[in-house]
Amino acid sequence: MTRLTVNDRPLEFRMDPQTPLLWGLRSAANLTGTKYGCGSGDCGACMVLVDGAALRSCLITLGEAEGRVVTTIEGLSPDRSHPVQQALVAEQAIQCGFCTPGIAISAAALLARNADPTPEDIAAAVPNLCRCGVYPRLVRAIQRAGRVMRRLETISAAPAPGLTPEDAARAVPAMRGE
């Protein structure tokens, strides 16, 4: 039996310790916000916070997560009030939504350690793939969430100015891995 804390709740998983954390969260804990994308750690759809670090839950086993603190998208902010979640909506950085939970987790981990990231910082810290290609809006949303966390701005429905075309041109290829 594997024990860990998930979204501030102690849980015991009666699954093989070699089971990927992703499947423990989705199948046993019914936390389906964490998505299965590629199963090989390339896409980031399964990103969760493990002891505050963004990790791909398809690559970590339940056994490796034993005794650790895991936060899924459901635990990031149950009422969706986290600045990253609000900024993603406000900047219209969500298309199909499949990749959004993993991106929100990666962005939250980045902003916890650097609330004023450059586009290059974001490209390095948010490795998630988005098939809809909303990368310029993701950069704007993450920077906006950082401003909210630094108490320089509040979230409104209107997109905020700030990301220049030059910034986007530098950040987008890096976020795609080019």
Automatic annotation (TrEMBL):
Alphabetic keyword roster: 2Fe-2S, Iron, Iron-sulfur, Metal-binding, Oxidoreductase
PROSITE patterns xref list: 2FE2S_FER_1, 2FE2S_FER_2
Stretches of the chain forming a coiled coil according to its record: none
GO MF entries: 2 iron, 2 sulfur cluster binding; metal ion binding; oxidoreductase activity
Pfam families, sorted: Fer2 (PF00111), Fer2_2 (PF01799)
Oxidoreductase found in the keyword field: yes
Keyword Coiled coil carried by entry: no
Domain named 2Fe-2S ferredoxin-type: residues: 1-76
Source superkingdom: Bacteria
Alphabetized PANTHER family for the sequence: BLR6218 PROTEIN, OXIDOREDUCTASE WITH IRON-SULFUR SUBUNIT
Name listed for the protein in its UniProt record: 2Fe-2S ferredoxin-type domain-containing protein
Organism per entry: Novosphingobium arvoryzae
Taxonomic lineage from the root: Bacteria, Pseudomonadati, Pseudomonadota, Alphaproteobacteria, Sphingomonadales
